[in-house]
Amino acid sequence: MAPSSSSTQSFVPIKEVRDGIILEKDGGMRGILLASSLNFSLKSEDEKNAILLQFQDFLNSLDFSVQIVIQSRKLDIRPYLALLEKQEKEQQVDLMKIQTREYIEFIRSFTESTNIMTKNFFVVVSYNPGAISGEKVGALTSFLGKKSSKDKAGEKTSGFEEARTQLEERLAIVEQGLVRTGIRVARLGTDEVIELFYKAFNPGETEKALVKK
Fold it and tell me: Are 63 and 15 part of one and the same domain?
């Protein structure tokens, strides 16, 4: 059997990203929240119990499913080192220049010998609009005659706005529940979502060396 000529993109279930919302090929919609972490070990027993109870109440209040995704990546220290090297060149005092260079070498050797990881926490909220498929709708409306392309475009836009409202209501519920537990959250916009998936599907890109100007 000859190898398939299908592009890699055909295996990605994402149709497009619009207004920060992921539109999937099967009609599903997804919104992503970036969540902060809590240093649970530094909390007192009463604080720990309060956080756990609040988080439990939050989960019990949901009537829809959510996904919690933890992303671990190796820390890219290169931008910080580039900043230090720039400061080293700007130093006017020889002693400060030497100390900056020693600090740069220390940071570089330390990060090369130690695998330092960063963690990001995401909460994915989903919404699948409409139980009636497009085929059933087409069969039903065939008795009423064909609709103009303008009417179809209007229905498509209206359907997206209605579904987006439902998804945003779910996102607001999740946001409020997490804030009550002391977690800060932020919705990802279109650029952030695209960057997130680009890095997920192209992990090697972050390992490439910086191009020196």
Answer: yes
Per-residue pLDDT of 15-72, as tens digits, reads 888 888 999 888 889 999 999 988 888 889 999 999 999 999 999 999 998 999 998 8
- Residue 97 falls inside a structural domain: yes
How many domains is the chain partitioned into structurally? 2
Give the global pTM: 0.67
Residues 148, 184, single domain; the answer is yes
Looking at residue 105, its amino acid is E
Contact criterion met (CB below 8 Å) for 66 and 121: no
Q: Residue 129 and residue 124: Cα distance in Å, rounded? A: 16
